[in-house]
Amino acid sequence: MIQDISPHKFDNSFKIQTPSKEDHVLGFQDKNALVRYTDTGIQCPLFKDLDLPLEGTYLFSIDHKAYFLVMEVPEQNGFSYCPLRPLTKESPNYFGFAYATGFHLYDWYRNRTFCGRCGTKLIPSTSERALVCPHCGVTEYPRIFPAVIIALTHKDKILLAQYPHMKKQVLLAGFVEIGETLEETVAREVYEEVGLNVKNIRYYKSQPWGIVSDVLAGFYCELDSEKEIRLDTNELQRAYWISRNELCYGKENLDGSLTSEMIYRFKIDAYK
Predict the structure, then answer these.
(1) HEC profile of 126-171
(2) What CATH number is given to the structural domain containing 182?
(3) For burial by CB atoms within 10 Å, which of 98, 180, 208, 272 has the most?
């Protein structure tokens, strides 16, 4: 998955640090990232590659190499703004993870300018990753939205879906509501989207997905009783059962997402 960057080491501990010319620059415009494609993969710019002052917000390090967020970086020296999502599948894989995680923080910083209580402009905390209101003391932390990915199975079949804005086959998914457990979210989302009841809900694995500020929790579960799919057409374009033998899904479909890993593990009979 996207966060599996071993043997590289990710460190997101808070620091106040001034960039050097050898540090990385993370620049974004909406859901596009500043990057250069090369014959061997993607290249994340260093400060020395760009005509920029040594200023920025320290985000994290990978292998002790610092990454800084810099707002409004112009395209230059072969670096241009490219769609963010495809970068998570490129080599080296730790750059894709850096871009996705950096975007999560970029999106938070640009959306948290003023205090929601009194309207005063927020300022960075000097002791933790937070924004503080100097007037009323409100502290804003990076927003992380919990969501579930659901692999619903029945005998040798798995339920796949297609959302109106996506062409590829996916699993059911949804956000956790206030007061819910993750397992309750699984049951509710399945019932709301396809009208089916589930049993034997088992946690599989989690994944940070900074592109939409999520942390995803993957679950496998089983159909509780056989009945027809009742599709929520406001959410889904299609939902259907497909057997393990009919499912065309190989390693080439693994794109760094928890969804693709869960479908693949079902296909190879590694998780029932």
Answers:
(1) CCCCCEECCCCCCEECCCCEEEEEEEEEECCEEEEEECCCCCCCEC
(2) 3.90.79.10
(3) 98
pLDDT at 271: 61
Omega before residue 92 within 30° of 0, cis: yes
Residue 272 pLDDT exceeds 60: no
Return the amino acid letter for 267. Answer: K
Both 106 and 158 in a single domain? no
Query: How many other CB atoms sit within 10 Å of the CB of residue 209?
Result: 25
User: Does any domain span residue 49?
Assistant: yes
Confidence band of 91 (pLDDT split at 50, 70, 90): very high
What's the number of domains the chain is made of?
Answer: 2
pLDDT (average), residues 122-129: 96
3 part of a folded domain: no
Dihedral sign from CA coordinates of 80, 86, 91, 97:
positive
pLDDT tens-digit map of 236-258: 999 999 999 999 999 988 988 99
**Range of 155's domain?**
145-267
- CB-based contact 36:80 (threshold 8 Å): yes
